[in-house]
Hints:
Blueprint: H1 2-58, H2 64-142
Helix pairs in contact: 1-2
Amino acid sequence: MAFKFRLETSLRLANQEMDIAQGQLAQELRVLRTFSEQRDYQLSIFLHSLEGQKKACLMEPQNLSLWLKFSLEQKEKLSNCEKRLQEQEKIVAKYRENLVECRIKVEKFKRLKEKQLKLYEIEELKKEQGIIDEVAQSRTGWR
């Protein structure tokens, strides 16, 4: 049954690796959600600046340059937020792939353990059958 210990150890390590991968993915998803919220907030500020620019064109032309400058700054900030969000989406995709690989490894060890256990049980049954046959032969030989 030495195989059982090795497989259980490998399975336990694979499960630990999968737990770590799940934790890392969860952490990166939280960062992604934060970046998404920041982008949404920045988008609302940018849209507000465009509205202010539009109102300045119609009612306060003297403030138009201020609104234009503010809009450009907000557009740049929005662009930076979107870049960070896209980079974080790539990171999350990488961690998802890692988690899938860990799950595959865990399933592989589970199936291997089940297969080895079945083979072991078959061997044990063969041994038992051999002992039973031997006992039966010795009893019939005595009579």
